[in-house]
Amino acid sequence: MNPVIPSGILNIDKPSGITSHDVVDVLRKVLKGTKIGHTGTLDPMATGLLVMCIGDATKLSEHLTCQDKKYSVKMFLGVETDTYDVTGRIVFASVMNKDEIYIKERIKRFIGKQMQVPPIYSAIRVDGKRAYEYAREGSEVELKPREIEIYDISNISVDIVKRNVSFDVHCTKGTYIRSLVNDMGKKIGSGATMSELRRIANGNNTVSDSIKLYDFLKLQYDDMIKRIIPIEKYYESSKAIYLNEIEYNKFVNGIKLECICYDLLVRVYCEKKYKGIGIVEDNMLKRYIIE
């Protein structure tokens, strides 16, 4: 008899060549009968951390998706493509005449808040249609700029001869790294296209705590289940709220309780037994996830 699948978080290291939804489909076939979602799409060519929400933890998707992200990026100078990465068609090429110091200085200018236009080859909906569908048809569509913030750009490495640049970037959710690379290329004056992308962190989740998808699929079923971090453990650093039986009955029936707390999501206990996750807004605690 297979063990019960707990609700929780599963950190997967996505391989290149498949979509984030492909990962969801594969896990649904393995962990049958449970809800599964992820907290931020990665392009098919990208690798790295994909935070999977299992069971009741799918309710956490919105909160986890809103967390900041960290990426390891590689870009190729002197070329622009229609997709802003090396899978696309070359639309511009130039001769390199910039030095390493100049390139690093231009890249560093992108730290801070800014408006960013998403790439035309993206899943953003415009008038009920995906932007990439317009692009594939050869139709023009206007994508509105969005405010993003680049918190830091570090570990910049430049190889002038090979035209390769690599760096790590810490940014807000909704940042398109392909657009960032394209904008960097214009700022440098040579053009650039993304050649590699790897997500290394999503909030407090890091790729070092993940397991490669194909390694996960090789595990015995019991060991697969052990890789899922239960919701209580995942939020073990958050505040614990202890309710008596009367308070808990109100809580579980959707009645808000006064609670002065700085954490948005808290662990809720009754009679010292874990009961679920509550959400605190305007100093009021309400039901969110019940075990």
Q: What is the CATH H-level superfamily of the largest domain?
A: Pseudouridine synthase
Shape: elongated
Major β-sheet profile? 11 strands, mixed
Task: Give the proportion of residues in helices.
Answer: 10-25%
Describe the structure concisely for a colleague.
The protein is α+β, with helices and mostly antiparallel strands. The protein has 9 helices and 20 strands.
What would you say this structure looks like, in words?
- The chain has 291 residues and is of the alpha+beta class.
- It folds into three domains: 88 residues, Pseudouridine synthase (2-Layer Sandwich), CATH 3.30.2350; 128 residues, Pseudouridine synthase; 56 residues, Archaeosine Trna-guanine Transglycosylase, Chain: A, domain 4, CATH 2.30.130.10.
- The protein contains nine helices and 20 strands.
- Strands 1, 2, 3, 4, 7, 10, 11, 12, 13, 14 and 15 form an eleven-stranded mixed beta sheet that branches. The protein has a five-stranded mixed beta sheet with strand order 16-18-19-20-17. The protein has a two-stranded antiparallel ribbon with strand order 5-6.
- The longest helix has 12 residues.
- It is elongated, with a radius of gyration of 22 Å.
